[in-house]
Amino acid sequence: MARSDSRLPAKDFIKAQCLRVVMKQGVGVDNIDLTAAKKRGFPVHNTPAPNSKSVAELSMALTMALTRRVSEIDRAVRGGATVIRSQTFSTSMYGKTVGVVGMENIEKIVAQKWIGAFDCSVVAYDPFVSPDAWSVLDHTQCPDVE
């Protein structure tokens, strides 16, 4: 079982005597030398869905931290500055238009959360999905990322 911070280079596959399969927790397998695994006959699998909701929530949390300038205000307060709310420009996300690049599992969850929690409009782009990819989700699919 490998995680994102694990590295499985070719030298590890050469040493592996009892290995039968490699399971990567999460989506990507870029930390695994797939050529070496295949050469030694070790199948490599991943688990793309279990963390999707957590990743979507983190995406939203980071977006809100940016729009509300959380880090900047925190640094100012910790530095002894007086922060006057009316003089602090931040943006509410309620009713805004949110752009989503990619229209796979995590991006769909993010879009659903923005729509449901903040009544946002969603503009999405993904050159690899069909026009009806999110047929049950109110959104605008754009032909290009711009």
From TrEMBL:
Identify the stretch annotated as signal peptide in this record.
Answer: none
Quote one Gene Ontology molecular function term: phosphoglycerate dehydrogenase activity
Record domain D-isomer specific 2-hydroxyacid dehydrogenase catalytic: where: 3-112
| Pfam families xrefs | 2-Hacid_dh
Supply the PANTHER family for this chain. Answer: D-3-PHOSPHOGLYCERATE DEHYDROGENASE (PTHR42938:SF22), FORMATE DEHYDROGENASE 1 (PTHR42938)
Protein name in UniProt: D-isomer specific 2-hydroxyacid dehydrogenase catalytic domain-containing protein
- Tell me what organism the protein belongs to: Aspergillus leporis
Task: State the organism's lineage.
Answer: Eukaryota, Fungi, Dikarya, Ascomycota, Pezizomycotina
